[in-house]
Amino acid sequence: MKNKFTLAFTALVLVFTGAFAQTQPEKKSQPKQKAAPSQKAQPKMDAAAMQEQGMKAWMAYMTPGPMHEMMAKCNGDWKEEVTYWMVPGGEPTKSTSSCTNSMIMGNRYQETKHTSSMNGMPFEGYGILAYDNGKKIFVSTWIDNMGTGIMYLEGKWDEKNKTIHFSGKTVDPMTGKDMHVREEFKLIDDNNQFMEMYMTQNGKEFKSMEIKFSR
Prior knowledge:
CATH topology of the largest domain: Lipocalin
CATH superfamily of the largest domain: Calycin beta-barrel core domain
Order of helices and strands: HHHEEEEEEEEEE
Strand content: over 45%
Distance between the termini: 46 Å
Strand order of the largest sheet: 1-2-3-4-5-6-7-8-9-10
Helix content: 10-25%
Structural class: alpha+beta
Largest sheet: 10 strands, antiparallel, barrel
Number of strands: 10
CATH class of the largest domain: Mainly Beta
């Protein structure tokens, strides 16, 4: 007997395939033409085949894989040595922080919680890291109590250098407009990581932060 999840999933796929079929434009009748001798008629996919194909694609999309296993190895408590620059060419400010990583939703996403102080004020940050099986990329979102927006980054895994090369946008408080962000996140070994963040202001990129992680 199918469990509730399987029934719900099957129903969802049926809705998806049905909606897909409805979005296809109707073809106007045209005079029949003889197919060229070198061409073979392509078999049409019936509803059952479409449903099966959709279920296979969805299962592959939702199933955690090697990249999720790699993320899970970073679970636990980490110490952070933080250096940041408020403006290009400015004096760096150093501080210490800590974070806790944990996999959520059946090992599909990693949640990270950061706590420290910044300029004498309590700091709290929260991030979600995902590996999108469909796009074959990492996706990172970040919020903290030093702002009211959400930073969004996408990145590709560099196996040779054990680094995720992130790129995305956040809000520049000075202008209220989007600002380009680039992040390099390197997995040095099981207990050491290094992150560098770069921001672009007035068309010029500058290093805004670096963090040394250890556990």
